[in-house]
Write a structure and sequence with these properties.
Blueprint: E1 5-9, H1 13-24, E2 30-34, H2 37-47, E3 51-55, H3 63-72, E4 79-83, H4 88-96, E5 101-104, H5 109-160, H6 166-181, E6 185-192, E7 195-202, E8 210-215, H7 219-227, E9 231-233, H8 235-244, E10 251-259, E11 262-271, H9 281-298, H10 304-322, H11 328-336, E12 345-357, H12 359-365, H13 368-388, E13 392-396, E14 400-405, H14 414-429, E15 437-452, E16 459-463, H15 465-476, E17 482-485, H16 486-490, E18 497-506, E19 513-522
Parallel strand pairs: 1-2, 1-3, 3-4, 4-5, 15-17
Antiparallel strand pairs: 6-7, 6-11, 7-8, 9-10, 10-11, 12-14, 12-15, 13-14, 15-16, 17-19, 18-19
């Protein structure tokens, strides 16, 4: 059991001691104590515990006032309310104020421990999901940046080799340089005999690229040309220059324009903001690649073919790694269309929800690293099968996957594809020595599909009654079972489906009754 910190807020010493000595300490919980509501708010503000056990009737601030204060200060800490005054009216009011559970005094050790575990389980799952989401967002942001840089470089190579006028070429080069390095300003210099001439410039806060033809004496461009390699300087290195000249940037990246062993100029980008970041090694690599294109374009030549091959190799790597988990149609949209936001729509969608069974016993036998490896192997195997059958897979809590069919593009026989996927998943897991297997629910219906979630947690998902029904089916499914409703069976060719009737379960609203079948195979 994790050592979460629990704040016990009760004006009764006997009640506090009972909770601490008989519930929290024996179960390895850390604890904090408050004798009244005011102390509870001060401790919550300073310590931010994982859970608050809150008495309703207390001096200085009662439980209701504490709940209001927590909400006003946006202290999102789960609360279990304790009171002798247990009534429906009180329960409704405290739940409206955000209480997670409600325990009437006097309570037993088991009653309180059960309430604590249930509340903290939700918190643990949410934290785990948030941590996973953060990692996925960071990975996706890096992948997005890389593809954006590659596409910019790819497109600039194609463009500059097709433009006839030198002014058009150098203007496009400066624009591309600021784009791929995310910089505020940029310049392109060309050697004219022994002199350095500025031919294009972009000023900060000005979207226009201005073509010029004026002598320049940029010391950083000269140094890069003389060294024959990129030069990157940050705020500290430029501080001495700024003392002499106030318009010196806070970050500079310059790379020479080389034709073989000969330098014909320099390409420079910079940031004028005091809080600007230093340029990265990746920025230098991308700017150097662009400089090669610039030199070739200025000499009326092209290196487009090699860049296209480079881009294709990078995209091939992405396809190879992501293609195991994302359906080909969805992956094509992501990689070939500059990562568009997939449009939302309403339509028929097939949903398969699967959860690993038997992992609790496995967790007791293996150490954590071994357990995680085994779990991931099973889930990755299921994700691969889903992708091969044209489904879109998404991780579901810690031990399951939800897969969508017939989206983002329509599929022929998508219900059969969903059932074939489920059968393949069960067959793959069946008979493994770890004793793991999947329980699966499959359903279909109309739903809204699209990028759904908080801004930092967007995911391609479906919303509708079909999701609620498939959750009920999955909850009832045992290991190796694939459960569907009579409605889904009625939409299939009965000569192809081997199924057996199991009975009825409660539907999404718990009043509706669903006729449930187990899928045994397809003919």
């Amino acid at each position: 059991m994790a050592e979460e910190r629990v704040l016990v807020c009760d004006d009764g010493k006997e009640s506090r001691d009972f909770i601490i000595e008989y519930i929290l300490q024996p179960n390895n919980f850390d604890y904090l104590m408050a004798r009244n509501g005011l102390e509870a708010i001060e401790i919550a503000r300073a310590e931010h515990p994982d859970l608050i056990l809150l008495d309703l009737q207390m001096p200085k601030m009662n439980g209701m006032q504490v709940l209001d204060a927590l909400k006003d200060e946006q202290l999102e800490i789960p609360v279990i309310l304790m009171t002798f005054h247990g009534s429906e009216e009180i329960a409704i009011e405290v739940y409206r104020k955000g209480v997670h559970d409600y325990v009437k005094k006097p309570f037993t050790v088991d009653e309180m421990l059960w309430a604590i575990e249930r509340t903290l389980s939700e918190v643990r799952l949410r934290k785990e999901k948030e941590a996973l989401t953060e990692r996925l967002i960071a990975a996706n942001a890096d992948m997005t940046q890389r593809i954006r840089e590659l596409n910019t470089l790819y497109n600039i190579g194609k463009t500059v080799t097709s433009l006839a006028g030198i002014d058009d070429v150098i203007g496009r080069i400066v624009w591309a340089a600021t784009e791929i390095t995310d910089s505020e300003a940029g310049s392109l210099y060309l050697m004219m005999g022994e002199q350095l001439v500025c031919r294009a410039i972009k000023y900060p806060n000005d979207p226009q690229i201005r073509t010029v033809n004026q002598l320049a004496n940029d010391p950083f461009a000269w140094r890069s040309i003389q060294m024959g390699k990129p030069l990157a300087l940050g705020a500290e290195e430029l501080a001495a220059y700024r003392q002499k000249k106030s318009n010196i940037p806070y970050a500079i990246l310059v790379t020479p324009l080389m034709l073989g062993e000969r330098s014909i100029g320099a390409l420079s980008v910079n940031s004028m903001s005091p809080d600007a970041r230093s340029f990265r090694k990746q920025d230098g690599a991308m700017l150097s690649a662009l400089a090669d294109y610039a030199a070739i374009a200025i000499e009326n030549a092209t290196n487009f073919t090699e860049l296209a091959r480079y881009r294709d190799r990078e995209l091939s790597k992405l396809r190879s790694s992501l293609g195991q988990f994302i359906a080909p149609t969805l992956l094509d949209q992501i990689l070939e269309q500059d990562l568009p936001a997939l449009s939302s729509s309403r339509g028929e969608v097939g949903v398969m929800l699967l959860t690993l069974r038997g992992h609790d016993a496995l967790a007791n036998r293996l150490n954590p690293d071994e357990f995680v490896l085994v779990m991931n192997r099973y889930l990755e195997s299921a994700a691969n099968i889903i992708a091969r059958h044209g489904g879109v897979a998404e991780r579901y809590l810690g031990e399951g996957i939800v897969a969508y069919f017939n989206v983002p593009e329509s599929q022929d026989n998508y219900l059969i594809k969903a059932l074939e996927t489920a059968l393949a998943v069960v067959r793959t897991a069946d008979g493994e020595p770890e004793g793991l297997n999947f329980g699966i629910g499959v359903h279909a219906g109309r739903a809204i599909v699209g990028n759904i979630g908080a801004v930092r947690g967007l995911g391609y998902a479906a919303v509708g009654e079909v999701i609620q029904v498939v959750q009920r089916l999955q909850e009832k499914a045992q290991a190796k079972q694939i459960l569907v409703t009579e409605d889904l069976i009625s939409n299939l060719d009965k000569d192809r489906v081997k199924a057996t009737y199991l009975g009825q379960i409660a539907g999404s609203d718990r009043q509706q009754r669903l006729n449930v079948y187990e899928i045994l195979g397809l003919l």
